[in-house]
Amino acid sequence: MSGDERIERARDTYAQAVFGGDTDGLADAERGLDALEADVALARGLILHARFQSASAGTGSTPAEDPAELSLFERALELYRALGDTRGEAEALFWIGCVHQFIRRDDEIAVPYLERSCLLAAQTRDKPTWSEALRHLGIAAHRAGRLDEARERLEESSRLRREIGAVPGVASNMIGLAYIAAAQDRRADALATLDEAHALAHAHGAHAIVRHIEQARTQL
After folding, report:
1. Which of 131, 199, 201, 206 could form a disulfide with 157, with the two C-beta atoms 3.0–4.6 Å apart?
2. What is the 3-state secondary structure (H, E, C) of 11-75?
3. Cβ neighbours around 109 below 10 Å, total
4. Per-residue exposure over 63-78, b if at least 16 CB sit within 10 Å of its own CB, e if not
5. Are 160 and 130 in contact (CB under 8 A)?
6. How far apart are CA 136 and CA 90, in angstroms?
7. pLDDT tier, 8 (very low <50, low <70, confident <90, very high otherwise)
8. Which letter, b or e, does each residue of 171-185 get, where b requires 16 or more Cβ atoms within 10 Å of its Cβ?
């Protein structure tokens, strides 16, 4: 049911209750609005995250965090849990973890959220969220020096992304795999991985990923 339909249903239910005395639909209409609020909170959080990420890429420095972002994802999590929406819960958990990892650089807090997100996404076969959680668990493992684990996580994330046709995401993962290869003294593999990532990103118009690949070349 679309957002407009949920709102219209709530209006109709109001009229039935106030004018017809039929209150049976109120609880169901309220749940529909809770689901809509959860979806909107998550979407608004995504917009703020995109702004942070774009500002970071554009200036080369870390911009100020918008405190509303984490609050939006936490509100979405609260609502999805109350609704029993496991798929939504997994996605909200991922984004809370991402805020702590990507914006606040705190893997200790981020990893439990990411692990729970990964588990729930796997249970619901939500491959987009599953792949994201695996990617960021791989990033945490890389930072902790657990290179084999990091490689395994990123490769599994890439497998899922290929299955759903998220090719730019595959190219993004390959940047991480190149850094891991370099850390394992596999420089030739690292450069070959970046070449493949560049071809994928360029073919799919993923210009931001192409820029990250070029940056990785200079660092490797």
Report:
1. 131
2. HHHHHHHHHHCCCCCHHHHHHHHHHHHHHHHHHHHHHHHHHHHHHHHHHCCCCCCCHHHHHHHHH
3. 13
4. eeebeebbebbbbbbb
5. yes
6. 14
7. confident
8. bbbbbbbbbbbbeee
